[in-house]
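This section describes the prediction task in plain terms. A model, or a person checking by hand, is given the sequence of a single protein chain and must write out its three-dimensional structure as a string of tokens. No templates, partner chains or ligands are provided. The sample shown here is typical of the held-out split.
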Amino acid sequence: MALRIGIGLPFTDGAGDPHDAASLGERARWIEEAGFSGIWMGDASFRGLATWPDPWLWMAAAAAVTSRVELGFAALQLPLRHPVDNAQRLMTLQTLSDGRLSAGVAPGSTAAGFEAMGESFEGRFAKFQADMTTIRALNHGEEVNGADLSPWPVVPQPRFLLAAWAGGKMLERAVTEYDGWLCSAGRTTVKTIVEGLKRYRDLGGERALVASCSADLTARDVPMGDDDPFSLRCSPEEAADRLAWIADQGFDDILINIRDGRSPGPFDSDLEHDKLLELRSLYEPAAAYTKAAR
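The expected answer:
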């Protein structure tokens, strides 16, 4: 099956300076023009991993200069923000992007962000479920506790993808309540994501996405075992084989964070036009996801 390939937006340029709207927009256009299926943004806000820009505003800059690619979050930590605010932002970005938004959502997994926002880390799962109920209702045009977004009828709801580990009830919810499942290449192992995919398909799940895949085509080839994270930190030839392998497993999408080879991590790396084209040449990606939103 054909694999869709999404690319993560960079935060800084080659000199380590933050992008402005013009330079970030240029990179978003590169992604679309190269034929990739989507532009993606994570939400590891307030953890000290990097200077993390507001994911909503960063993605709005990409929406303004593109017209075909899917725009996605992988994944928003919903309990860190008020659900009415989240609902309005989702409606707004879905409108600005002409219905191209896929909102990966998650309860969150790191206490630091909850401490920063004055929220309960222990109560994150209950708040997540309640917040999703509120967000869906508001985007359907219902009033919730005095809040009424009065959404435009012509704007569909965004697609919701659930970021979840491979076991437990959350994976079941990804099947019954969401438009897809997001798993992590960076924080799990090859064995875990493959076993998780099998369970997801056995439960009846449809769209399956591998997120947080690090790519550095200047890295030397090192064998990747079942207990290693899945990555494209290898030669171009090996990367082509790995992309074909992840497609053969039955995943629908892979979301890639490109390292530029000069910086210590993906959050300090910029996108380079020639490296995007090199990655694009390794595998013929499928077109952007177009299933109608719920």
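For orientation: The longest helix spans residues 124-139.
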